Amino acid sequence: MNSVSRQWLQIALDLNSSLSNQDRFDRLLTTIRHTLNCDASALLLFQDQQFTPLAINGLADEVFGRRFDLTFHPRLEAIARAGDIVRFPSDSTLPDPYDGLIPNHEDKLHVHSCIGLPLTIDERLIGAITIDAFDPEQFNNFSDDDLRIISALAASGLHTALLLQQLEKQAVVSHEPLTEKHNIKQEMIGTSTVMNELRSQIDAVAATDLTVLITGETGVGKELVASAIHYHSPRANQNLVYLNCAALPESVAESELFGHVKGAFTGAISHRKGKFELADNGTLFLDEVGELSLALQAKLLRALQYGDIQRVGDDRHIRVKTRIVAATNRSLHEEVKEGRFRADLYHRLSVFPLPVPPLRERENDVVLLAGFFAEQCRNKLGLNTIRLDDKLVSTIKAYHWPGNIRELEHVISRAAVMAKAEEKDGDLLLQTEHLLISDHHQAIDITPAEIDSNTFDYNEDFGLKSATEAFQKELIEQCYKHNHYNWAATARQLKLDNGNLHRLAKRLQLK
User: Fold this and answer.
1) CA-to-CA distance for 254 and 259, rounded, in angstroms?
2) Domains (ranges, CATH) in the chain?
3) What is the pTM of this model?
4) pLDDT digits (tens, 9 = 90+) for 404-422
């Protein structure tokens, strides 16, 4: 048995081993790299006219977060349409999606030799393997038949992994026919331990009709979690209805929730369904539920308790089978203590509490998310390539991101716009000087500042209580400014509950 045959055998053994899918995919690419002596390779999943990386070898971590839409990547489109091995000539003018994304080759930013292996099952495309090298002649000694063997083995392994994954979900979610349908629009980017745990919790609760209370700081992606719960549930083919409770005027709040009949109030010119009815047999997502008034909380509680609603101006009761998923960035437990939220409603909503981790606790996910947003910017701005400077990557990993994923998205978007203004050739390198804080348009400072408690000016006329309050006020002001005027980040630095800090700030007349 020659060395090439042994490599094929090793690929087959790895793909049929008892390892996890990720380990099998990683070993596949490692074997390919050793066999073909390539500089980089990637295993991609094909869904809804785009490729999603499942495993990478020799590429920057940010590639894991990118989603390659065929509309914007002609090389990947060629691979998807070919039906067989694609060899791109070294002088091809088609932009390579990985240009500048192979680390430690700063002097050779553009890939020269590229091969695409479409992965098909029953003539249906399910993925692809891309193989890249800087040497234009690197793959000349490998025949198409050799590459077809890799393609066939990889396609079989990927197909098996997808079916097993679908079977696991089907066992707890529904009894629908087995398919390979994926909900990439509800995808959550990240491979950190806390995100994998969150996905496990979502899968567990999605299969039930339990009411879910999603908690977490502003910008962590609570709406995305609610969407994932719905689309992984037996209600996935029914409506997911969204209602922002914080933007709900008191005068129309009841009508928005429960609907109204014609003539119920001035302006009610026809019958109208409320959110509960629109979400019947589906899911109603109540965002910022902690902002509801006490009066509306009582009416919401009745709907949850008895499963029926009344339209405004109507005496009839309407039965609904609406699942409730709520979200808040407040501590509802503290709100209950302060009398601003009903205890009975809190217990009804928090049957399954689901905390979403802040970005600073998600290990290397910030790099993947930055790559995801960078790819979005590349598409929107019509760029050839967009990549992240090594120093920028170190900076965003060190920054505490008080605004979480939303802040990261805005920072990367602004950085891309600024970099484009400087570069006219369509190849952007995002650097640290392009990073700006959203509220103050200043470069991100990743060095934690010390809170200077020595600046407190003691007045001899102070009593202990007055002196303590004056010191608290000055310390909170310093910390608040240091954290870019973000109360949640200030609470974390002062090791206080967020709700308690807000109440203290109001008492000290800081709010």
Assistant:
1) 7
2) 3-170 (3.30.450.40), 193-355 (3.40.50.300), 360-434 (1.10.8.60), 453-507 (1.10.10)
3) 0.76
4) 999 999 999 999 998 888 8
